[in-house]
Amino acid sequence: DFIRKLLGSIEENLHDKGHDDDAGKIVDTLKKAIDELRSDPQGTKSAASKPSAAKSKKAAPKKQGSKKSSKKSSKTIATDDQNGEMQFVASPELIKQFVTEGEELLESAEQSLLSLEHDSGNQETLSTAFRAFHSFKGNAGFLGYADLEAVSHQAETLLDTLRSIGAEGQGTAISLLLSVIDFLRGGLSALNEGNDPEISGKAGIVSLLSETIVSLGGTAPETPQALDTEDETEDDQDEPVEMEAESENNSGSEQFPERRSGIDRRTGDDGRSSGRRAADKINGQRQTIRVDIEKLDILMNLVGELVISEAMVSQNPDIKELNVPMDRFERSVLQLNKITRDLQDVTTSIRMIPLAGTFRKMIRLVRDLSQKVGKKIDLELIGEETEVDKTVIEQITDPLVHIIRNSIDHGLEGPEERLANNKSDTGKITLEARYVGGEVWIIINDDGKGLNREKILSRAIEKGLVDGDGLEMKDEDVWLMIFQPGFSTAEKITDVSGRGVGMDVVRRNIEKTRGKVEVKSDKGRGTSVILRIPLTLAIIDGMVVRIGETLLTVPIISIKESFQPTGDIINILMDGQEIVNIRDHLFPVVRLYEIFQLEPDSRELCDGILVMVENEGKAVCLFVDEVVGQQQVVIKGLSDYVGDLHTVSGCTIMGDGTISLILDIKGIIDKAEGEIKGLAMNQRMEIDSGAKVMETVEA
After folding, report:
1. Which residue, 290, 252, 249, is CA-closest to 270?
2. DSSP symbols for 567-622
3. How far is residue 523's CA from residue 66's CA, in Å, rounded to a whole number?
4. Which residues, other chains included, contact 441 with Cβ-Cβ below 8 Å and sequence gap of 6+?
5. Contact 154, 210 (CB under 8 A)
6. Measured distance CA(661)–CA(654) in Å, rounded
7. End-to-end Cα separation, the chain, in angstroms
8. Rounded Cα gap, residues 90 and 143, in angstroms
9. Crossing angle, helix 274-282 and helix 229-251, to 10 degrees?
10. What's the pLDDT tens digit per position in 656-675?
11. Would you tell me the crossing angle of helices 293-314 and 327-350 to the nearest 10 degrees?
12. pLDDT at 598
């Protein structure tokens, strides 16, 4: 209560003066409590609060904390009857918080170390890494995780040594510290799964760290497994100075722009002290809280149901049958629609997190792989602040890893080959994110040798993926062959790539988000892979169209235009395929009633509406009876009982309670393209030795 009072004073007055007497009384009370515990180590005299010996032995963790103790949910302190010391028992909630903050601290340390490779000797960056390890060590020691504490303490000491000697000898130390981070992450992963966070080979890691510290002129801790009390006290006394320096340094940092506020926007916490958070608050920074993702999922579902209910009210057939002026009702519906949309936008934005965390994980990947394959590679990050749905983040991490691995192993040339081709000896990979319409585009570009059309076609023909010689295939279609399961053009399998698994993972993960993958390549100049991902996965803007008595929903993002055709723009080819000429461009017509076996109002194109839709640069015109109007729709998945419908991506509930299928434009275009190719298998006449020879060819 007193500390809260001080924080309130700091917030209002920017100081905590005037409370010396109260502070003195509290200090005296605490000292008396400490003396009483030392004289009576068994605890208080209350029998109710004194745990039995059996309970205390079971509850109190050893140096490493058992799996059983980590499952405790209510106990916080117990007494160890063997030595009379107070032992801490962590609740599952506290362990979860430790893991989350530990991952953030290790991420901060890793990014700082990677920055040091390009800016060696930067004291600010060194201090950031030092503080991250120091905080991690303190948290691990508080919970009794000896392995994590011992290793991170040695790493902290190594960083402290680097701060004193400058840039000399940093390279080897940084590589070692990055390996230490991997070991610590392994411990956190084990702890998150309910196991002991033991580090395999801890003794060897600690020994290697100690040797490195000594070789750099530092003094390694003598007893890393049982940390010295005085050493901890000195570190804690130095902490306010470090915190103050961090606040000053972060305000001008250009290396990590999303952390300038001192708050990690991914989680709403900087993983450090409440003092920093209080300082941020005072400085007018944004305040954030942690929220369980399950609660956000429930909120999103409720907003989706609200959108459906709003449509049910505004489109209620009972109201439409009244045939009376309804100006006030319509104004109320418009206001309700506005509020519903605003609520949906806010709910969606709550789930949105910046791509910075995901992008920066690739820095380490590029560094390690470039050293493994012996290539010089620079990684440029653009648009890190771009935000996407948390679910999307989980789906794109693996695709990014596989694409970048392929770029490094297959795309970028070695230094000698690049110099021979009048390029810089250092290859470049650019990872960019930006908003395009209602999508987020994530672009992975390299300046390597590009894709080899002949090699890809040869392998595709060998695997039976292409009919004929494939010479008439567009480049875009050839490039998409690399996403086929088991497809690889690598001449030998390495531990980096070559098994034909990675790009298939890319395609499947992106399709889970209803996204698309595009590939562009220029021989000798490089390759670009574009991941096109929808901003939200739950609610979309759709255009409702009618065929007979059936309503279908077309995603607005796929619609280019809609119009009623006239006879002069309609053409029928010899094979029966209908096309329309729009501004000197020809587009095939797809009769939706044929695909879904519906009965339309009319089969004459001039009596209906054509809706032009586009996907991946391909466009067709959908023939419908009527365009009903635009509205927000909530995507509901189809049951497995229905099966895999390539022309439908889901369904939605309309205002009158009926079901409307949501069209999968990519599937419809692919289906139409296949039918057009089938119709184009026509009889072509050729003269051979004076005789007519019929040959079936693909146009």
Report:
1. 290
2. GGGEEE-TTS-EEEEETTEEEEEEEHHHHTT---S-S-GGGSEEEEEEETTEEEEE
3. 57
4. 432, 433, 434, 435, 530, 531, 532, 533
5. yes
6. 10
7. 82
8. 7
9. 20
10. 778 899 998 888 888 887 76
11. 160
12. 92
pLDDT at site 533: 83
Kindly state the tokens that stand for 340. 């519903």
d(CA 285, CA 265): 12
Q: Across 386-400, 471-485, 603-617, which has the greatest mean pLDDT?
A: 603-617
- Dig out the tokens for 538 from the structure: 């739950």
At 134-168, the pLDDT tens digits run: 999 888 888 888 888 888 898 888 888 888 776 56
Token couple for 427: 């290859």
Report pLDDT digits (tens) over 53-108: 333 433 444 444 444 333 333 334 444 445 545 555 667 878 888 888 889 899 88
The CA-atom distances, in angstroms, between 130 and each of 102, 346, 364, 640 are: 14, 38, 18, 52
pTM (whole model) above 0.70: no
In whole numbers, what is the pLDDT of the chain averaged over residues? 76
Amino acid at 97: Q
Flag whether pLDDT at 132 surpasses 60.
yes
Q: What is the DSSP letter of 368?
A: H
* Cβ-Cβ contacts under 8 Å for 604 (sequence gap 6 or more): none
Alpha-carbon span 545 to 663, nearest angstrom: 11
Instruction: Determine what percent of the chain falls in helix, strand and coil, rounding each to the nearest 5.
Output: 50, 20, 30
CA 216 to the chain's CA centroid: 39
Which of 461, 634, 625 is closest to 539 using CA atoms? 634
Q: Max alpha carbon distance in the chain (Å)?
A: 118
The answer to whether the beta carbons of residues 247 and 262 sit under 8 Å apart is yes
Within 10 A of 30 (CB to CB), how many other CB atoms are there? 10
Q: Which amino acid appears at position 41 of this protein?
A: P
Residue 558: is its pLDDT beyond 50? yes
How do residues 272-328 score in pLDDT, each as one tens digit? 343 444 444 444 556 777 788 888 888 888 888 888 888 888 877 788 777 778 888
Phi, psi dihedral angles at 555 (to 5 degrees): -55, 130
- The label of the residue with tokens 């100006």 reads 327
Least confidently predicted of 557-561, 562-566, 570-574, 690-694 = 690-694
Interior/surface letters 127-157, b for 16+ CB within 10 angstroms, e for the rest: bbbbbbbbbbbbbbbebbbbbbbbbbbbbbb
Q: Could you tell me the strand order of the sheet in which 618-624 lies? A: 559-563, 609-615, 618-624, 585-591, 578-582, 570-572
DSSP bridge partners of 428: 378
Q: Is the pLDDT of residue 584 over 60?
A: yes
Identify the H or E element spanning 202. helix 202-215
Rounded distance between C-alpha atoms, residue 245 and residue 128, angstroms: 10
367, 330 Cβ separation under 8 angstroms: no
pLDDT at 398: 87
CA distance 193 to 199: 15
Beta-bridge partners for 691: 688
Q: Which two tokens stand for residue 608?
A: 């209906």
Residues 6+ apart with CB under 8 A from 255: 115, 119, 125
Dig out the tokens for 195 from the structure.
Answer: 């196991």
Give the pLDDT score at 677: 59
